[in-house]
Design goal:
single chain; 231 residues; alpha/beta; OB fold (Dihydrolipoamide Acetyltransferase, E2P); 2 domains; 5-stranded mixed beta barrel; 42% helix; elongated
Protein backbone atom coordinates (compact mmCIF):
# COMPACT_ATOMS: atom_id res chain seq x y z
CA UNK A 1 0.00 0.00 0.00
CA UNK A 2 2.76 2.39 0.93
CA UNK A 3 4.62 1.59 -2.28
CA UNK A 4 1.57 2.43 -4.39
CA UNK A 5 1.07 5.69 -2.50
CA UNK A 6 4.68 6.64 -3.02
CA UNK A 7 4.43 5.94 -6.78
CA UNK A 8 1.34 8.14 -7.05
CA UNK A 9 3.04 10.92 -5.08
CA UNK A 10 6.11 10.73 -7.32
CA UNK A 11 4.14 11.17 -10.58
CA UNK A 12 3.74 14.98 -10.34
CA UNK A 13 7.47 15.32 -9.77
CA UNK A 14 8.23 13.07 -12.70
CA UNK A 15 5.88 15.08 -14.91
CA UNK A 16 7.49 18.33 -13.81
CA UNK A 17 10.93 16.92 -14.52
CA UNK A 18 9.79 15.88 -18.01
CA UNK A 19 8.46 19.39 -18.67
CA UNK A 20 11.69 20.96 -17.46
CA UNK A 21 13.70 18.68 -19.72
CA UNK A 22 11.48 19.53 -22.68
CA UNK A 23 11.84 23.27 -22.08
CA UNK A 24 15.56 22.95 -21.69
CA UNK A 25 16.11 21.40 -25.10
CA UNK A 26 13.39 23.07 -27.22
CA UNK A 27 14.52 26.58 -28.05
CA UNK A 28 12.67 29.27 -29.96
CA UNK A 29 13.83 29.20 -33.57
CA UNK A 30 15.90 32.26 -34.41
CA UNK A 31 14.78 32.36 -38.03
CA UNK A 32 11.15 32.67 -36.87
CA UNK A 33 12.09 35.59 -34.64
CA UNK A 34 14.09 37.17 -37.46
CA UNK A 35 11.14 36.85 -39.82
CA UNK A 36 8.91 38.66 -37.33
CA UNK A 37 11.51 41.40 -36.87
CA UNK A 38 11.78 41.96 -40.64
CA UNK A 39 8.00 42.15 -40.89
CA UNK A 40 7.91 44.88 -38.23
CA UNK A 41 10.74 46.83 -39.88
CA UNK A 42 9.11 46.46 -43.28
CA UNK A 43 5.82 47.76 -41.90
CA UNK A 44 7.56 50.85 -40.52
CA UNK A 45 9.56 51.62 -43.66
CA UNK A 46 8.26 49.71 -46.67
CA UNK A 47 5.38 52.08 -47.42
CA UNK A 48 7.76 55.06 -47.46
CA UNK A 49 10.57 53.55 -49.53
CA UNK A 50 9.73 50.87 -52.07
CA UNK A 51 13.35 49.66 -52.02
CA UNK A 52 12.85 48.54 -48.40
CA UNK A 53 10.23 46.02 -49.42
CA UNK A 54 13.29 43.78 -49.63
CA UNK A 55 12.92 43.45 -45.84
CA UNK A 56 9.65 41.46 -45.90
CA UNK A 57 11.00 39.48 -48.88
CA UNK A 58 13.91 38.45 -46.67
CA UNK A 59 11.36 37.76 -43.93
CA UNK A 60 9.58 35.31 -46.23
CA UNK A 61 12.82 33.43 -46.82
CA UNK A 62 13.52 33.31 -43.08
CA UNK A 63 9.95 32.15 -42.43
CA UNK A 64 10.32 29.24 -44.85
CA UNK A 65 13.66 28.38 -43.30
CA UNK A 66 12.12 28.40 -39.83
CA UNK A 67 9.23 26.15 -40.88
CA UNK A 68 11.58 23.66 -42.49
CA UNK A 69 13.92 23.57 -39.50
CA UNK A 70 11.18 23.28 -36.87
CA UNK A 71 9.42 20.49 -38.76
CA UNK A 72 12.69 18.65 -39.25
CA UNK A 73 13.77 18.96 -35.62
CA UNK A 74 10.53 19.20 -33.59
CA UNK A 75 12.26 18.02 -30.42
CA UNK A 76 14.85 20.81 -30.60
CA UNK A 77 12.96 23.91 -31.78
CA UNK A 78 9.69 25.64 -31.06
CA UNK A 79 8.05 28.63 -32.72
CA UNK A 80 6.02 26.96 -35.47
CA UNK A 81 3.02 29.28 -35.07
CA UNK A 82 5.30 32.31 -34.91
CA UNK A 83 6.98 31.27 -38.15
CA UNK A 84 3.61 30.76 -39.86
CA UNK A 85 2.34 34.15 -38.69
CA UNK A 86 5.50 36.01 -39.70
CA UNK A 87 5.61 34.31 -43.09
CA UNK A 88 1.98 35.20 -43.82
CA UNK A 89 2.38 38.81 -42.68
CA UNK A 90 5.56 39.30 -44.72
CA UNK A 91 3.80 37.95 -47.81
CA UNK A 92 0.85 40.29 -47.27
CA UNK A 93 3.22 43.22 -46.75
CA UNK A 94 5.07 42.50 -50.00
CA UNK A 95 1.83 42.28 -51.98
CA UNK A 96 0.26 45.29 -50.27
CA UNK A 97 3.41 47.38 -50.57
CA UNK A 98 3.82 46.54 -54.25
CA UNK A 99 0.20 47.47 -54.97
CA UNK A 100 0.51 50.71 -53.00
CA UNK A 101 3.72 51.86 -54.68
CA UNK A 102 2.40 50.88 -58.11
CA UNK A 103 -0.70 52.98 -57.50
CA UNK A 104 1.38 55.94 -56.32
CA UNK A 105 3.66 55.69 -59.35
CA UNK A 106 0.70 55.52 -61.74
CA UNK A 107 -1.12 58.51 -60.23
CA UNK A 108 1.59 60.84 -58.87
CA UNK A 109 2.33 62.78 -62.08
CA UNK A 110 -0.12 65.69 -62.49
CA UNK A 111 -1.88 66.04 -65.82
CA UNK A 112 0.10 68.10 -68.30
CA UNK A 113 3.51 67.31 -66.77
CA UNK A 114 6.22 64.97 -68.02
CA UNK A 115 7.95 62.59 -65.63
CA UNK A 116 11.74 62.81 -65.70
CA UNK A 117 14.55 61.64 -63.44
CA UNK A 118 17.99 62.92 -62.54
CA UNK A 119 19.49 60.18 -64.69
CA UNK A 120 18.20 62.01 -67.77
CA UNK A 121 20.09 65.13 -66.73
CA UNK A 122 23.50 63.46 -66.52
CA UNK A 123 26.36 63.89 -69.03
CA UNK A 124 26.07 61.57 -72.00
CA UNK A 125 29.59 60.18 -71.62
CA UNK A 126 32.57 60.23 -69.30
CA UNK A 127 34.59 62.04 -71.94
CA UNK A 128 31.89 64.70 -72.36
CA UNK A 129 31.52 66.80 -69.20
CA UNK A 130 29.05 69.18 -70.86
CA UNK A 131 25.34 69.01 -70.19
CA UNK A 132 23.31 66.45 -72.12
CA UNK A 133 21.14 67.41 -75.04
CA UNK A 134 18.18 66.07 -73.10
CA UNK A 135 18.49 68.91 -70.59
CA UNK A 136 18.18 71.51 -73.32
CA UNK A 137 15.24 69.67 -74.87
CA UNK A 138 13.39 70.03 -71.56
CA UNK A 139 13.82 73.80 -71.36
CA UNK A 140 10.50 75.59 -70.74
CA UNK A 141 8.67 72.27 -70.47
CA UNK A 142 6.50 71.32 -67.53
CA UNK A 143 8.18 68.41 -65.76
CA UNK A 144 7.67 66.24 -62.69
CA UNK A 145 10.72 65.04 -60.75
CA UNK A 146 11.50 63.46 -57.39
CA UNK A 147 14.47 64.14 -55.15
CA UNK A 148 15.55 65.39 -51.73
CA UNK A 149 15.68 68.86 -50.23
CA UNK A 150 19.29 69.78 -49.52
CA UNK A 151 19.68 70.49 -45.78
CA UNK A 152 21.23 73.89 -46.56
CA UNK A 153 17.81 75.53 -46.87
CA UNK A 154 17.63 78.98 -45.29
CA UNK A 155 15.00 79.93 -42.74
CA UNK A 156 12.68 77.92 -40.56
CA UNK A 157 9.52 76.13 -41.56
CA UNK A 158 8.40 76.02 -45.16
CA UNK A 159 10.49 77.79 -47.79
CA UNK A 160 9.87 78.73 -51.39
CA UNK A 161 13.48 78.30 -52.53
CA UNK A 162 15.73 75.29 -52.07
CA UNK A 163 18.08 72.96 -53.92
CA UNK A 164 16.64 69.63 -54.96
CA UNK A 165 19.34 66.93 -55.05
CA UNK A 166 19.42 63.45 -56.50
CA UNK A 167 20.14 61.69 -53.20
CA UNK A 168 21.29 62.36 -49.66
CA UNK A 169 24.65 60.59 -49.94
CA UNK A 170 26.67 63.76 -50.48
CA UNK A 171 24.53 65.84 -48.14
CA UNK A 172 25.12 63.56 -45.18
CA UNK A 173 28.85 64.26 -45.36
CA UNK A 174 28.55 67.95 -46.12
CA UNK A 175 29.98 67.63 -49.61
CA UNK A 176 29.27 69.34 -52.90
CA UNK A 177 26.86 67.42 -55.16
CA UNK A 178 27.59 67.17 -58.85
CA UNK A 179 26.32 70.01 -61.01
CA UNK A 180 23.93 67.66 -62.77
CA UNK A 181 22.60 66.33 -59.44
CA UNK A 182 21.16 69.68 -58.33
CA UNK A 183 18.14 71.77 -59.30
CA UNK A 184 17.49 75.21 -57.82
CA UNK A 185 13.76 75.25 -57.14
CA UNK A 186 11.59 78.34 -56.76
CA UNK A 187 8.02 77.60 -55.68
CA UNK A 188 4.79 79.48 -55.47
CA UNK A 189 3.43 80.25 -52.01
CA UNK A 190 1.09 77.29 -52.22
CA UNK A 191 3.89 74.89 -53.15
CA UNK A 192 6.38 75.73 -50.39
CA UNK A 193 8.15 72.84 -48.71
CA UNK A 194 9.85 72.24 -45.37
CA UNK A 195 13.12 70.38 -45.02
CA UNK A 196 12.76 66.72 -44.14
CA UNK A 197 15.04 63.74 -44.88
CA UNK A 198 12.49 62.16 -47.19
CA UNK A 199 11.82 62.17 -50.90
CA UNK A 200 9.75 65.07 -52.23
CA UNK A 201 7.90 65.48 -55.51
CA UNK A 202 7.93 68.77 -57.39
CA UNK A 203 6.42 69.83 -60.68
CA UNK A 204 6.92 72.97 -62.71
CA UNK A 205 8.71 74.62 -65.63
CA UNK A 206 12.29 73.47 -66.17
CA UNK A 207 15.15 75.65 -67.34
CA UNK A 208 18.91 75.57 -67.82
CA UNK A 209 20.70 78.72 -66.72
CA UNK A 210 23.35 80.40 -68.82
CA UNK A 211 25.50 80.98 -65.74
CA UNK A 212 25.70 78.67 -62.71
CA UNK A 213 24.47 80.09 -59.42
CA UNK A 214 25.52 79.66 -55.80
CA UNK A 215 22.98 78.92 -53.12
CA UNK A 216 23.33 77.91 -49.47
CA UNK A 217 27.03 77.20 -49.90
CA UNK A 218 26.51 75.12 -53.04
CA UNK A 219 28.15 76.19 -56.27
CA UNK A 220 27.59 75.36 -59.92
CA UNK A 221 23.81 75.16 -59.61
CA UNK A 222 22.76 75.29 -63.24
CA UNK A 223 19.39 73.58 -63.50
CA UNK A 224 16.33 75.55 -62.37
CA UNK A 225 12.69 74.76 -61.78
CA UNK A 226 9.78 77.16 -61.32
CA UNK A 227 7.55 74.84 -59.30
CA UNK A 228 3.84 75.27 -58.85
CA UNK A 229 3.21 71.85 -57.28
CA UNK A 230 5.01 69.95 -54.53
CA UNK A 231 4.23 67.09 -52.19
Amino acid sequence: MSTTTENIAEKPYQAAAAIDANLQYRTLNRAAVGSLFLFIMGTLTGFFFWQLLILPVAGILLGFSALRTIRRYPDEYTGLNLARFSLAMCALLVVGGAVYHSYVYATEVPEGYERISFSELQPEGFAQPELPQRAFELRDKRIFIKGYVHPGVSGMGKVNQFVLVRDMNTCCFGGQPKMTDMILVHTTEDARVAYAPRMVRVAGKFDVGRQPEQYAGLKDVLYRLEADLSK
